[in-house]
Each structure stands twice: as structure tokens, then as C-alpha cells.
UniProtKB/TrEMBL annotation:
Keywords on record: Isomerase
Residue ranges constituting the Chorismate-utilising enzyme C-terminal domain according to the UniProt record: 1-106
EC primary class: isomerase
SUPFAM superfamilies, per database record: ADC synthase
Entry keyword annotation includes Isomerase: yes
Superkingdom assignment: Bacteria
A Pfam family it matches: Chorismate_bind
Gene3D superfamilies cross-referenced by the UniProt entry: Anthranilate synthase
Descriptive protein name: Isochorismate mutase
GO molecular function: isochorismate synthase activity
Keyword Ribosomal protein: no
EC number per UniProt: 5.4.4.2
Species of provenance: Capnocytophaga canimorsus
């Protein structure tokens, strides 16, 4: 899935402050945003690190041209461990078991490369 967003910044804004205001997106944080963000901060118990952050390329900083995407699957490798970050979207119609299985499948895909 990809959404292209194009906008003209106000002169007093910079592109990085806009990106920071968009993070984390409601798609990976939840809705209503403030309640979901507070719940995650109090209950998740670990740092998401790169997961759900933005990755991308600065094409032309002078013209504020960026190509970023939300990082929905990633792996961190250190000398001591390998950490895999994946997730699933829960909505009112979700079947918890199916969502859990989808999350497991995403993790297996990531783990298959090592």
C-alpha cells in the first residue's frame, strides 16, 4: 500500500518538523490517537526502535523533496541477538486468532532470510 502526499510548506515550517508531527501514524498507533499513544507508552514495555518509524531518502533538501515510507517490518541484528519487529492491525471486525497468525507469518518471512 502506498499513499503519495504532496504539499507546499509554509515558509516558517521545515519538512522534518512535519514528518515528526506525522509520527507515529494512526495506522500504527491507533485511534483515537491520543488515547492509543498513551496506552502504548504505558503498556507496550519495549522500544519500537525503527519499527513504525520513517525510512527513506532525501532527494533534494534545498527543495524539501523527500521519499519516505513507514517501516512496518524490520530486523535489528547485534552481536548478542536478532530482533524482528512486525505487527498487525486490529479493527472491530478483526478475528484475534487470524490477526495473531498473520503476525506470526510476517515474522517467519523476516526470519527466513537469516
Amino acid at each position: 500500500m502506498c499513499s503519495h502526499i504532496e504539499a507546499t510548506l509554509k515558509e516558517e515550517q521545515d519538512v522534518f518538523s512535519v514528518v515528526n508531527q506525522l509520527h507515529p501514524t494512526p495506522a500504527v498507533c491507533g485511534f483515537p490517537y491520543e488515547k492509543a499513544f498513551e496506552y502504548i507508552a504505558q503498556n507496550e514495555g519495549y522500544d519500537r526502535e525503527f519499527y513504525t518509524g520513517y525510512c527513506g531518502m532525501i532527494s533534494n533538501i534545498a527543495e524539501n523533496i523527500l521519499d519516505f515510507y513507514v517501516n512496518l517490518r524490520c530486523m535489528k541484528i547485534t552481536a548478542e541477538r536478532i530482533s524482528v519487529y512486525v505487527g498487525g492491525g486490529i479493527v472491530s471486525q478483526s478475528d484475534p486468532e487470524s490477526e495473531w497468525q498473520e503476525t506470526q507469518n510476517k515474522a517467519r518471512t523476516m526470519l527466513s532470510v537469516i
